[in-house]
Write a structure and sequence with these properties.
The protein is mainly α. 52% of the residues lie in helices and 0% in strands.
Length: 332
């Protein structure tokens, strides 16, 4: 006999809508009273009212997170979440207590009533928030159980296993004393018998092999010997090719302009004056006086001597530093 349990009876039930309505009404009443008292007792200005009304809103948001977000699996993270919620609830309770007590005193309530009235609001909000968390936990547990039951119902039921009765068991009245025959398993098919071997005919005699004719190797011809071929006459000597003419001859000297000619004339006159005074200037001294090089001064001294020789005047002593200047150097 197979016993089937009632799966629907073991499933946890979801919280009723009435429980949700009562819990949400109590929580909204507590948060609304605390928010209204804080804003009413706050000073003038938007900033003061926002600061006074923030703690109840923070408690409302924390309750929503604890109710709708599944609890973390790690115990440390879960403990941090709970501690944070307790801190927010404590701050909201202290702020609500002080604002509501001061507001009750302003409206003429005695000290005892003003001191105990805020506790009713904070206690209501605390109880309602705990109730919402418990209802949310029950709803998640019921959803998980329903999904598991639906998954188990989709599986095919297991086949019942017949249990043989013991030999000393007394059959019930009206039952057949002979046990029900147990079906035997199907016999395994026997292997096929070995096939009868067919007679193999005797092999035909193979004729004697005919000897193949032997092939006489052909004599190898000697390879010709390669001798170097020497031309009868030596190769003609290679004649040197004529070099092409220089395409860039020396450019013609460029005559100096008027300013350069005046500078040269002034340098020649300075040297003539120094020679007439008996102390002719050297090429370096003449070039330094006009901001030129030593070779420039020597060229001007040669021009001055040539002018003196052309006029018949006696030239000064030759410059010890004068040296022949090669033509075409381009020094001016």
């Amino acid at each position: 006999m197979v016993h089937v349990e009632n799966v629907d009876a073991a499933l946890p039930e979801r919280p009723s809508k009435g429980a949700w309505v009562v819990a949400w009404s109590a929580f909204a009443a507590g948060i609304g009273a605390s928010l209204a008292a804080n804003i009413a007792h706050a000073g003038d200005g938007v900033g003061a009212k926002f600061v006074a009304g923030w703690p109840p809103l923070a408690l409302l948001l924390c309750s929503e997170v604890m109710m709708r977000v599944p609890a973390p699996r790690h115990p440390l993270v879960r403990a941090m979440q709970i501690v944070g919620t307790v801190i927010v609830a404590g701050v909201a309770a202290v702020a609500s207590y002080r604002h509501m007590k001061a507001l009750a005193l302003e409206y003429g309530e005695d000290s005892l009533t003003a001191s105990t009235l805020p506790l009713s609001v904070d206690g209501l909000a605390l109880v309602a928030s705990i109730g919402l968390v418990v209802l949310a936990h029950q709803r998640r547990t019921a959803i998980v159980a329903e999904r598991a039951a639906a998954w188990a119902a989709a599986l095919p039921p297991p086949a019942p296993v017949p249990v043989p009765m013991p030999a000393d068991a007394v059959p019930p009245a009206g039952a057949d004393a002979s046990p029900e025959p147990v079906p035997l398993p199907d016999p395994e098919p026997l292997p096929d018998p070995d096939p009868v071997p067919l007679p193999v005919p005797d092999p035909e005699p193979v004729p004697d092999a005919v000897p193949l004719p032997t092939r006489t190797p052909e004599p190898r011809l000697p390879l010709p010997r390669l001798e170097p071929v020497v031309p009868p006459h030596p190769w003609p000597r290679q004649q040197p090719l004529p070099l092409p003419p220089d395409p860039s001859p020396d450019p013609a000297p460029v005559p100096p302009d008027a300013a350069t000619e005046e500078l040269w004339a002034a340098a020649r006159q300075v040297w003539k004056d120094s020679a007439a005074a008996g102390a002719p200037l050297t090429g370096q001294a003449l070039g330094s006086r006009f901001g030129r090089s030593e070779r420039w001064g020597r060229n001007r001294i040669k021009e001055a001597r040539a002018e003196l020789e052309a006029t018949g005047d006696v030239a000064g002593e030759p410059d010890q530093q004068d040296a022949p200047v090669p033509a075409g150097t381009g020094v001016v």
